[in-house]
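Whiteboard transcription, Tuesday session. T.W. wrote the structure tokens on the left side:
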């Protein structure tokens, strides 16, 4: 998993509540391999492209400077809907590494943290103020410092956010669930050896 420590990047102001996973990754794309060419086109596909596959110029992520965004400043209940992990894959394929919102779908939040995408939860008024600052700056950078647990808007206002200590560690060190478990391989092996010695009859031994 790619590490997340700090990020300073353009943020797209998406002032819409209840952006669900079917918008992020329409159902028909759920089984597309992440390695497929143009996977980044899946994100918001039905809103970004018309029936002929041409970009809709009115959609936020099709317009400069937002098409270069690596952060989305959203609204409440971002990532609600189904449990599809492909919604996170689509965001990351486009280049999004963090989403800032006042609340998230629970499974979307979990999927994000396990794949290197940082969901930052701030109070409603803070999200609104940050989104307004991003809109006014027209491409001004937002800075996220995960070790310090702060977000700084283009106007210089800083906001502090909470994150579970284990999930913070995994993001900073780039550990997915497999890599985290592998850190304890020696302890597992020692337990198995001790357990086998204490209960040999379970293994057909005497």
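and on the right, the sequence the group agreed on:
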């Amino acid at each position: 998993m790619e590490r997340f420590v700090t990020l300073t990047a353009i943020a797209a102001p998406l002032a819409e509540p209840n952006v669900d996973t079917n918008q992020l990754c329409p159902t028909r794309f759920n089984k597309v391999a992440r390695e497929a060419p143009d996977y980044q086109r899946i994100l918001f596909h039905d809103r970004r492209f018309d029936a002929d596959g041409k970009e809709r110029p009115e959609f936020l992520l099709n317009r400069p400077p937002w098409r270069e965004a690596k952060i989305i400043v959203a609204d409440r209940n971002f990532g609600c809907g189904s449990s599809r992990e492909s919604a996170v894959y689509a965001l990351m394929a486009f280049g999004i590494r963090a989403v800032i919102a006042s609340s998230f779908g629970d499974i979307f939040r979990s999927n994000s943290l396990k794949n290197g995408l940082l969901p930052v939860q701030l109070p409603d008024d803070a999200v609104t103020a940050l989104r307004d600052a991003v809109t006014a700056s027209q491409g001004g950078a937002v800075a996220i410092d995960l070790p310090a647990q702060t977000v700084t808007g283009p106007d210089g206002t800083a906001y502090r956010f909470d994150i579970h200590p284990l999930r913070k560690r995994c993001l900073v060190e780039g550990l997915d669930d497999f890599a985290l478990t592998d850190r304890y391989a020696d302890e597992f092996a020692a337990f198995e050896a001790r357990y086998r010695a204490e209960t040999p009859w379970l293994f057909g031994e005497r």
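Someone added at the bottom: Strands lie at 6-13, 71-73, 98-101, 118-121, 141-145, 150-152, 158-160.
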